[in-house]
Amino acid sequence: MRIFLRFSCTRTAIATVRHRGLIRIPTHGPGGSWRRTIPPRWRSVPGPMLSARQGTSEMAGHLADMLSYFSMDADPFARDLDPSRLLHLPGIEDSLSSLSFFCERRGIAVLVGKSGSGKSCLLRLLASALPVGLYKPVYLGHSTVSLSEFYGHLASAFTLQPRGRRASLFRAVQDHVLALNRSNKVHPILIIDEAHCLSNDILIELRQLLNFQYDSETCMSILLCGQEDLLSRLKLSLLESLANSVTTTVVMKPLTGDETASYLEERLKHVGARPDLFNPPAVRALHNASHGIMRTINALASAALVKAWRAKSEVVESDFITTLMG
User: What is 90-252's CATH number?
Assistant: First the structure.
């Protein structure tokens, strides 16, 4: 504690006590009460904070102005897309059909594709399409973990206590899965996202998780979702047992040129915009720049839309997209 003496024009000395970052100044008089003040460095200063709030307000205002300019109800390329609006795309529809068939056949499936190709949307579509009461989708999204941590996450996903050794958690998960099948007639489907990041130890363990009753029953299915190098890893000799158990492999392909145009049109129609807001040369430029990857299409289309608004153009032209590519 440090004590500083400050002398005013009166005869009374005001002692300022600085303790734990607070300043307390006693009032005049022997029985005066303590009054807490705010240190100068803590006092609100109208400067950067005010500017930040104003900047946020201005950004929100700019977005509203742009949406109004193009007669849109919302941002057409926001992430909160209803996955059902992708069903009109042949690639998405075919992939969903293959995964739905896998759920009926049971076993192990692999879903791979480039980052941003729509794998997560497809998983949401699949989970929402599974009949309630017959299937129980269980999602794991954290794949960069150790084997022990994986079992803890798996137990939590099945609403079990993530405590104990790996062997006890293994038995607890298997017993729970058996109970779901025999008592509730529910088939769990374990969906592991970012599966290309799983360690070899975890991938080996997955095959053992499906060993029920001397490997005579398929009480749980596993869907591995990741990037394309997952298929290369499954060719390793130590993962041969897992690879031989894969019953379905689905590869998400980039959108074709026609699919890119249809995808843009659907997203624009969803927010009330004119479907031909991107003229044909712009659609071609967008497809070529994005290589048909939906996440890249969203990013480039959103940036091009801003450029068209600032230029007060009624349509998005190819020049707005080519300038984004440098």
Answer: 3.40.50.300
